[in-house]
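Rather than argue in generalities, we reproduce a single protein record, letters for residues, whole numbers for local backbone shapes, just as it appears below:
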Amino acid sequence: MARLERLSDAVLVHGTDTDPAELREFLHVTGVPVGDGPLPDGVLPGIRRSQGSRLTGEARPCLDAIRDTGVPVLVASGGHTAALERICDALASALGGERGVLPGAGHFVAAAPGFTERLERFMHASAARSPSPSR
């Protein structure tokens, strides 16, 4: 996990200027199909968007407070890296949330086949369980 955090932080700080070997390792871990050649066209904009974001180790959400609000939670991942799957499993458990594994888009799980349908089912089920707001 420490290696994953270090790689993530390097990409968040340095973006496309990250050491090329570390950048490729990070992309591989996050499920981006990279080989030895040039990076796929769609990858660079994502790296640039993430550069300057909060470092992974700085995220310290109060999971108990989130769980206790009763807000429905869906933790979705791409099923591409065991370490990330363990993190998502633990997060869903701590939040009392639902867990979805949607392979096909790596770390960009919202682009995975079936994600939109899974999210829609979750939202409809959550709305059906929630009491109507009183006026």
